[in-house]
Amino acid sequence: MSSRVLRKLGLQGEKDITSLGDDASDTEADFSSSGGAKKKQLNINRYDLLNQQSHSESEVKEDDDHETAGSLNAQENEAEHKEAARRKKKKKRKKPGKIPNNARSSEDNIEDEVERSVREVNELLGDTPGRVSQEPASMHALGPKKGILNIEHRSLNPNNELKRIFGSKIVQNEQSKRRGGSRTRGHLKTTWLVSPKENWPPIGKPGLSMSLVKTENGVSTFTYEHSINYQQVQVKFLDAVESLNPDNIVGLINLHPYHVDALLQLSELCRLSEDLPMAAELIERALYCLECAFHPSFSLASGNCRLDYRRQENRALFIAVFKHLMFVGARACCRTALEFCKLLLSLEPEGDPLGVLLTIDFYALRAQKYEWLIRLASEWEPSRNLSQLPNFAFSIAVAHFQLGQDV
Fold first, then answer.
1. b/e sequence 237-272, b meaning 16+ C-beta within 10 Å
2. Domain housing 36
3. What are the start-end ranges of the E strands in 263-367?
4. Residues 179 and 299 grouped into a single domain
5. pLDDT, tens digit only, all 407 positions of the chain
6. Residue 404 belongs to a domain
7. What sections of 243-305 are H helices per DSSP?
8. Where do the record's region annotations for Disordered lie (predicted)?
9. What radius of gyration do the chain's Cα atoms show?
10. HSE-up of 244 (CA within 13 Å, CB side)?
C-alpha cells in the first residue's frame, strides 16, 4: 500500500504495519475458537481494508490522470499562446504594407485620368485599343524609347558587319592584302561615315564649311558654305561638265582632290563604265570631305539635325549618302545601309527629297529589324500615310509574320 493509504488508516511506520499483520493472525486464531460474531467482524474489517486500499489506489490514479491531463492542457495552452503571438507579429509586419482607403481611391482616380487621357489621344490619332494590343510584347519591354531615327555609330562601318558575317580574321586578312602591309598614315582624320584609305591625299583646307542657321524645339538646322576659292573651283567644274570630256574632270580632281561635286561626277562615270570599286571609293572620299566640314554641334546619332535640300550647297551630302548606301547594300551590308537610310531621312524627314521611304523597309527586313519597322510605320502613319505605300503594306505584314514565327 502507498503512504497515502497508510495515512488514511492512521498507521505510521513499519511497526504499525507489523502489528497490523500480528492482529490479523490473532484474529484468525480467535476465528477458529470463538464463533460467528467475531468472524463476521473480522471479515468486515479485512474487506474494508482492501476496499480502502483499492479506493486509495483509484484515487491516486485519478489524481495522476488529472495531473497528466492538466500538464497536457497547459502545454496545449502554451502552444496556442505561441501561435497567437506569431499571428500578432505577422499582422504587425503586414500592417505597414497596407494602403489606406483614401490612398487607394486617389490612385484609382489617377489611373482613371491616365486612361481617359490615353483614350482621348487614341481617338485624335485614329488608333484603337485593339491596334495597340496587336503590337508585339517585346516592343513594350524596351524601356525608354530612343528616337526612331537615332543612329548607332558602330553600325555605320560596313567592315563591322562583314566581320559579323564572315569572321574578323577573314576581313582583316583581306584588308592587309589590299594595304600591302603598309601602316595608316597619320595625316588622315578619323571619321564616322567612312574609313579613310591610306592612298588618299591629305585633306588640308578644301574651302568647305558648315554653319548653324537656327534651333527650334530641339531641332537644329545647318547649312554648308563655300569659300571664295571653292567657288572658283566650282566654276571650273561646271565648265568641265559642259565640255563633255571626262578627262577634264579627272584633271580637275588631280588639282583639287577633295572637290565634292567633281568626285560625285567622276564616280558616276566609273559606275557607268562598270568600275564599281573605284566608283565606291570616290563616293567615300566625297563623304570624308563633307564630314570633315561638319559643324561641332552637328550630331549624326541624335537625328535632330536638318539640312535644306533646296540649297545647292547642301545637296552634295544627300547625293553622297544615297549613293554610298546603295554601294554598301550591294555588298550585303544591309544593317549599315539601314543606318545610312536613317541618316538621310533625318536630314529632311518632312520632304524626303530622295525617296528613302521607298527603300528603307527593304533594308530593315534584310537586317531583321522587324520591331523598328513596325514602330516606324505606327509613328509616321498619322502624318505620312505609310500604309498607302505598296512597299510598306507588304513589309509590315512580313514583319508581323516574322515576329510571330520567332515567338
1. beebbeeeebebbeebbeebbbbbbbbbbbbeebbe
2. 3-79
3. 305-307
4. yes
5. 555 655 655 544 444 444 444 444 444 444 444 444 444 444 445 555 555 544 444 444 445 454 544 555 556 566 666 666 666 555 555 444 444 555 455 555 665 777 777 777 676 655 444 443 344 443 333 334 468 999 988 889 888 888 887 777 776 676 666 655 445 455 678 889 999 988 899 988 889 999 999 999 989 999 999 999 999 999 999 999 999 999 999 999 999 999 999 999 999 999 999 999 999 999 999 999 999 999 999 998 888 999 999 999 999 999 999 999 999 999 999 999 999 999 999 999 999 999 999 999 999 999 999 999 999 999 999 998 999 999 999 999 999 999 988 75
6. no
7. 246-255, 260-272, 276-292
8. 1-115
9. 51
10. 0
Q: Which amino acid is at 316?
A: A
Q: C-alpha grid cell for residue 118?
A: 490615353
Same domain, 22 and 166: no
Pairing of strands 219-226, 208-216: antiparallel
Q: Do 34 and 161 reside in the same domain of the chain?
A: no
Helix or strand run (H / E) with residue 213: strand 208-216
Q: Is residue 230 part of a domain?
A: yes
Euclidean distance between CA atoms 301 and 370, whole angstroms: 20
Q: Which three cell numbers stand for residue 84?
A: 497567437
